[in-house]
Input
Amino acid sequence: MVNNNEVVLETKALEKHFGGIRAVNKIDMKLYKNEILAIVGDNGAGKSTLIKCIAGVYRKDEGELYIEGKKVDINNTKDAKDLGMETVYQDKGLISVLDAPSNLFLGREKLRDNVLGKVFRFLDERYMREETRKLLARIGVEVKDIASTVNFLSGGQQQSVTVGRAVYWSAKILIFDEPTNNLGVREQAKAINLIRTIRDTHPEVSIIIISHNLYHVFELVDRIIVLRNGQVIGEREKDETTRHEIVSMITGLNG
Output
């Protein structure tokens, strides 16, 4: 259930320029606690640039960013992660020759709690496997052989590992860039269900989705923000609008 009184992320007059082009032009946006928010628009509307400014891939040129009411500076992706923000891109961001536990704990490996770990830095592989199993079970994902390298997993399972990693490390804001792209029909449905499950089982998590697929948007989200030419053209509660209206806003054409 969305708590419309608690804002977890806010942008005020956010701008990003590339030469003389304003890719993001004075965008005001709010994300509420436990909400799923869609950002939609045509190619070149500014969706990805906006998200990259929020996630620290790009540095904003103007404007302000707030996390849970506190003004913050996000200069790189580490800043964003330290503030509890994780972005799931289309390429999944996994190391294909490693298994799911190794990807889950990548850069944060668990050492054994004995002399082998403290002195010789032996990894606690049993702990990492068990934590991965519990996490995947909690978000409803079945992987037959957890020791298999992730390149043997389906696209949807790989995405689940990526999402699970973000949730495991206490992300409060999850950003999905085209989460159903490059997936088959069945795996698209699983991806949608995964995002819904994360929201329903983790009330502290809020979600932003960039998507061209309005059918998936209307199936999943609470609220929709439409961008055109780097600006917010409109904002609608999902239950108070239609795909036809959103398409009209995206294209600027009526009828």
Notes: The two ends are 34 Å apart (CA to CA). DSSP finds nine helices and ten strands in the chain. The beta strands are 3-18, 21-33, 36-40, 62-67, 70-72, 85-88, 173-177, 206-210, 223-228, 231-237. The longest helix spans residues 185-201.
